[in-house]
Specification:
Elements lengths: L10 E3 L2 E3 L6 E6 L4 E7 L3 H20 L2 H17 L1 H12 L3 H18 L2 H4 L4 E6 L2 E9 L2 E5 L7 H12 L3 E5 L6 H12 L7 E3 L4 H9 L5 E5 L2 H13 L3 E5 L4 E5 L5 H13 L9 E7 L2 H13 L20 H16 L3 E4 L18 E4 L6 H4 L6 E7 L2 H9 L3 E2 L1 E5 L3 H10 L4 E4 L15 E2 L2 E2 L6 H7 L1 E9 L17
Parallel strand pairs: 7-8, 7-10, 8-9, 10-11, 12-13, 12-18, 13-16, 15-16, 18-19
Antiparallel strand pairs: 1-2, 3-4, 5-6, 6-22, 11-21, 14-15, 17-20
Helix pairs in contact: 1-8, 2-4, 2-7, 3-4, 4-6, 10-11
Length: about 500
């Protein structure tokens, strides 16, 4: 049975597709055509409970697997993901709308986390101290947390889940994935490939759903840790609710990423980089650049180049040849983005490139917004304040690098920021003084490699630890310290006083 062709999707529990207990179903559309292509169950508390029971039953055996054995299963999963990458990208494009090239690239970035996870046996090593006291040794262990859950967004249906579950599984946990109900099918295909790679039944489960399923995850006492990526209001809700229920939580929220362009920058290089960063994936990236801060004389030069290139961006169905930017995810998303463009005009910003009426022949019912560019944007405007999550780029002006940094640090979001310059002095000041989690120097989207951790500051992250990298290992494990003595018969035992070492 090919799960990706079903009109009604199942859940994946205990190593097999199962029918949902819920009676509610949502529509999955092709954003390029507006056509409903399948329906997804909106799971309830009973569905979540069934997944937790399967994950809990599988936990003892999986936790006791040697770490290297777990890693070898992930190695086979990595090979299968790579072998099927083009077909997986087609699923992403059909349900999300991004171009095939972009979809394939996002899957590759997810595979890189799997590659990192295959090396986790080395990272699970503890520390050992000999003779911390007379005939006393002490050491530490890192052990799995238990049943973990991931709640992931629509914009990266492969990459973001793979930020989570490969690390969790490699550390010895079992996992429940609640993917976005807008593009859920790829999660089932990954479940199949994990099973093909040799993952024991119940170690990885998929429960589709909306808020009802999310709330059931947050309330279930059998789930010990929750990872989330999405908007800031929901991230805050996830963090507060999960923590209140005694769970370990990492919740990554929204962003308003700034790119500072200095007068000494290579404007041709910077503009081309910024076009991709702003309009790639129709701006539906938490690391998309949505604000260009033009310093001093850089303003007109970068605006003219951005405007010229934005007008040439080819917009169309993601599976069409030569297309650079596909549709946004839903009709509601399109209408919301259009509304922001209207408000930007009403608030007095200069609309340099208007993307409200893109021409996409043969796709009149698709959810398209063209590249949009505003100049003379002020921080009080809604198009600057709010996370639009669409192909809308704003230019604000600053007199100095110091002013630009103050603007970035005054924003409630702190996910990513970039600087375009030829000056090492400016770059050093930028990287030292900007209070943001991820920075790029002449790199517009500074998403770190898998062996570093991904995450922002302020309203872009709720929790202490970022995803993947060493923070991921720390999140999905708990530390345990052991102190041991092996006395000879007749040795004096400790008394009532506080034991002393030495």
């Amino acid at each position: 049975m090919d799960l990706t062709t079903l009109e009604r999707l199942p859940l994946w529990i205990g190593g097999a597709p199962v029918a949902a207990r819920t009676t509610r179903y949502g529509e999955v559309t092709n954003p390029a055509t507006g056509e409903v292509i399948r329906h997804v169950p909106l799971g309830n508390a009973d569905d979540v409970d069934a997944a937790v029971k399967a994950a809990a039953a599988a936990l003892p055996q999986w936790r006791d697997f040697p770490a290297l054995r777990r890693a070898r299963i992930l190695m086979r999963f990595r090979e299968l993901m790579d072998a099927h990458k083009k077909d997986l990208a087609k699923i992403v494009t059909a349900e999300h709308g991004k171009t095939l090239t972009d979809a394939e690239g996002s899957i590759t970035r997810g595979i890189e986390v799997v590659e990192f996870a295959t090396g986790i046996p080395h990272l699970l090593k503890g520390e050992f101290s000999e003779s911390v006291g007379t005939d006393v040794d002490s050491w530490s262990l890192r052990q799995p947390v238990g049943v973990c859950a991931g709640i992931t967004p629509f914009n990266f249906p492969a990459m973001v889940p793979m930020w989570m579950f490969p690390v969790a599984l490699a550390c010895g946990n079992t996992f429940i994935l609640k993917p976005s109900e807008r593009d859920p099918t790829l999660s089932l295909r990954m479940a199949e490939l994990l099973k093909e790679a040799g993952l024991p039944d119940g170690v990885f489960n998929v429960v589709h759903g909306d808020k009802e399923a999310v709330d059931a995850i947050l309330a279930h006492p059998g789930i010990k840790a929750v990872s989330f990526v999405g908007s800031t209001p929901i991230a805050k809700y996830i963090y507060e609710t999960g923590a209140r229920n005694g769970k370990r939580v990492q919740a990554l929220g929204g962003a308003k990423n700034h790119a500072v362009v200095m007068p000494d920058a290579d404007f041709d290089f910077a503009s081309e980089a910024l076009i991709g960063a702003a309009y790639g994936s129709a701006g539906e990236r938490c690391m998309a650049v949505s604000v260009v801060v033009a310093v001093g004389s850089a303003g007109d030069a970068i605006r003219d180049r951005l405007a010229s290139r934005a007008r040439k961006v080819s917009v169309g169905a993601g599976n069409a040849a030569g297309v650079e930017m596909g549709p946004v995810i839903t009709c509601a998303a399109r209408d919301r983005i259009m509304g922001y463009i209207d408000r930007g005009v009403d608030e007095g910003a200069s609309l340099v490139v208007d993307g409200r009426k893109p021409s996409v022949p043969g796709h009149g019912n698709g959810f398209f917004v063209g590249p949009t560019l505003f100049d003379n944007v002020e921080p009080a405007m809604s198009i600057y304040r709010d996370e639009i999550f669409g192909p809308v780029l704003c230019i604000v002006r600053a007199e100095s690098l110091k002013d630009a940094i103050a603007m970035i640090n005054g924003n409630p979001y702190a996910n990513g920021a970039a600087l375009f310059t030829r000056s090492g002095h400016a770059a050093r000041a930028f990287q030292q003084d900007v209070d943001v989690g991820m920075l790029g120097i002449n790199v517009p989207i500074p998403v770190p490699m898998a062996f570093y951790s991904f995450g922002g500051w302020r309203n872009s992250l709720f929790g202490d630890l970022h995803v993947h990298g060493m923070d991921g290992v720390r999140f999905y494990t708990r530390g345990k310290a052991i102190t041991a003595r092996w006395p000879d018969d007749g040795s004096e035992a400790p008394g009532f006083h506080m034991p002393l070492m030495g």
